[in-house]
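User: Predict the complex with fe (ii) ion.
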Amino acid sequence: MIWMRADMKGKPNAIDEMLECHSEILRQSRRLEEALEGFRKGGSREDLRLTLDVFLLFTRTTLKLHKRDEEELLFPCLADAGFPGKDLERLMAEHEEFSALDELVGLARDFGKGGAPAMDARLMESLGKLKAHMKEEEDVIFSMAREKLSEKDMEKISERMKALRG
Ligand SMILES: [Fe+2]
Ligand SMILES: [Fe+2]
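Assistant: Here is the predicted structure with fe (ii) ion placed in the model:
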């Protein structure tokens, strides 16, 4: 991996913080995938519902904040550094799709057993897209940010990330 914490030199590094967020999103996504898998193999709907509740809270907090960090802080800096605007717009359009994830989780939560498989399949598909999105950001966007953004830019983003969390 190219994003080593060793290059932080004790200063806040916005990209490392965003990567930590990605790790948390991945952990939560895996938890939900496992719960969906468990349910498919005969587990109780109630167990799945509890995991869906946790995930729903997660999409409304950490995931929402992370999207905002990227859209309001990181992407504008990258655009200024010459990163193609249409790629950033596409990533933001994908963020919009992930807002629908929130709704999907809510629907899956309230679904009865009979209609659940189709809903769960849609949820799995959305989680797959979310993972692909994060991989692209890590491979392309975050690498570009490390290469092109100054230490000052990074510190500014990091400070604003903190400020947005109050
Ligand atoms: Fe993103
Ligand atoms: Fe991201």
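Residues 13-164 form a domain with the Four Helix Bundle (Hemerythrin (Met), subunit A) fold (CATH 1.20.120.520).
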